[in-house]
Amino acid sequence: MTAFDDLMAFQHDTEALAQVAGRLGWDQETVMPRGAANQRGEEIAALETVLHARRTDPRLGDWLERIDDARLPPADRAKLRHIRTSYARNTKVPAKLAAELARVTSVSQGIWAQARASDDYNAFAPTFETVLRLKREEASALAEGGDLYDALLQDYEPGTTAAELDAMFGALRPRLVALRDRILGADQPLALQGHFPAETQMALSADLATSFGYDLSKGRIDRAVHPFSSGSGADVRITTRTDEADPFNCFYSTIHEVGHACYEQNIDPEFALTPLGAGVSMGVHESQSRIYENQIGRSPAFTRYLFRRMSEKFGALNLSSPDAFTASVNRVTQGFIRTESDEVQYNLHVLLRFDLERDLIAGRLDVADLPEAWNTRFAADFGVTPDRVSKGCLQDVHWPVGLFGYFPTYSLGNVYAGCLMQAMRAEVGGLDAAFERGDTRLATDWLREKVQQFGGLYTPRDTIKRACGFEPNEGPLLDYLEAKFAAIYGF
């Protein structure tokens, strides 16, 4: 056995244990008994202790020193790049802090859920203080004197800085606001109304999932409060949610999570349980979920297919034509909830969170002052003020579980998706005709070939650049949104 072989064998088991940890998280959100939250926190902390010990094992440093990268093929060099980055980061974080973060954020999730349900921010604030304190400690250890937020951002979008994102988001905001104002000043399309049984929604969701290429022999669809995707390789699970008055929530949550899941399922099997066997970043991951959900799933062509399927499943709809249905799917309305937002305003929700979480990590914003800061910013950006914290700063699970640096990857993913769709349409003909039949294979095959199969082989930015043939930028997304909504709203 060479040093490289020893390292890969060790890493294989670490990756497998990380998948087990992810399965515990899936279980917690889907079927775990409510009273098991504290015990689950201890279980997750124990497993995190084991994982942290493996990720900081001195043998990793020894093996890495003994390996001559120049003698290895590109895929193996990429594996070493990931391991070196992980080792350097994990050795900066004390094991006790890593375990405490895992325990506290697991328990925090349940406390947040109860506080959100009762609209009681004060019930969550002490726990949030603890989460934020621990994340600042972690950021300080990782940054070594540099920017705290940039240090946390590397867990989600390696190689990106807050300053770069700030410039991109600054370019997004004016055109998004101008487009939203034009849309809200136009005649609004009719909303879908009716009663849509949950079980029928779930059955159609399963059909939609497979139509986008999701392999249910290696996955499953369950219900959760907050839809998510979990796992990689041969076990990739998703969740969705149902509202019997709003089936679009279920269908588009499903399609969104299928985008994540197909990315993981379509990675080269040779990369399984290696550092290359998962999506390279949350921004690239989000590009897949958003292009599935929006550029394909909400396109006029695909919504004509969905109109037929929903009419078959639920009977006659209150929307009399495919065009009226398309307009309803893409309605732009004022609202408070990010996950229910339309394409035009979604990024404005993310930009708000990006700015607030940077202030929280930097110490410029205290936990006690977050509700007021949120409401003030929301009123400035959207012209309305949330009347309860469940519609405001407690609506998302990300901060309660310590995912600071995650939010901006949603908008970055939208930017990447705009670039990918522009490149795809330039290379692939017949997309809309296929979408109208409910056939997404031309698009999903292109995404598998250009992006998904590579997993972590390339850096995030290089992954998108190689697929598109140009540097990712916000222009294609903005052009797409302006053209699409001008056609729907008639201006």
Structure, explained:
Helix content is 64%, strand content 3%. By secondary structure, it is mainly alpha-helical. It folds into two domains: 3-146, no CATH class; 162-489, Neurolysin, domain 3, CATH 1.10.1370. The protein has a three-stranded mixed beta sheet with strand order 1-3-2, sandwiched between helices. A hairpin with a 2-residue loop joins strand 2 (229-232) and strand 3. Helix 8 packs antiparallel against helix 14, helix 8 packs parallel to helix 20 (475-489) and helix 9 runs parallel beside helix 10. The N and C termini lie far apart (67 Å). Its EC number is 3.4.17.19. GO terms for molecular function: metal ion binding; metallocarboxypeptidase activity.
Short description:
The chain has helices spanning 3-30, 37-55, 58-66, 74-90, 95-118, 121-143, 148-153, 162-184, 198-211, 247-265, 282-296, 300-314, 322-329, 343-362, 370-382, 408-427, 431-436, 441-450, 460-468, 475-489; strands at 219-223, 229-232, 235-240.
